Amino acid sequence: MVIDCGSDHSAMVDSSGRVFTFGSNKFGQLGHGTYNDEFIPIIVNRVPDRFVSVACGIDHTLMLSGSGRVFAMGQNANG
User: Could you tell me what percentage of the chain is helix, strand and coil, using 3-state DSSP and rounding each to the nearest 5?
Assistant: First the structure.
């Protein structure tokens, strides 16, 4: 299992490659298609791949898939 923590949110990848996120979601950094804060880990269903790693920033989350693709979610104030 891979776990990473941002400023106010966290993300983890389980042994099956599924990503779970929880915490603050002010900028959509949890990837659930809402801006609702979550207090328990919720699976991110909006992505098609299985993942090997995650990294959380202040208001964003990055996910690395097993095929080498990178997915980003959250604040995009600086592109």
Answer: 0, 45, 55
Within the chain, how many helices (H) and strands (E) appear? 0, 7
Whether the full predicted model's pTM is greater than 0.90, yes or no, is: yes
Contact 37, 45 (CB under 8 A): no
Q: What is the mean pLDDT of the chain?
A: 95
Closest CA to 25 of 14, 13, 40, 15: 40
- Output the pLDDT for position 46: 87
Structure tokens at 2: 């891979």
Q: Are 56 and 4 in contact (CB under 8 A)?
A: yes
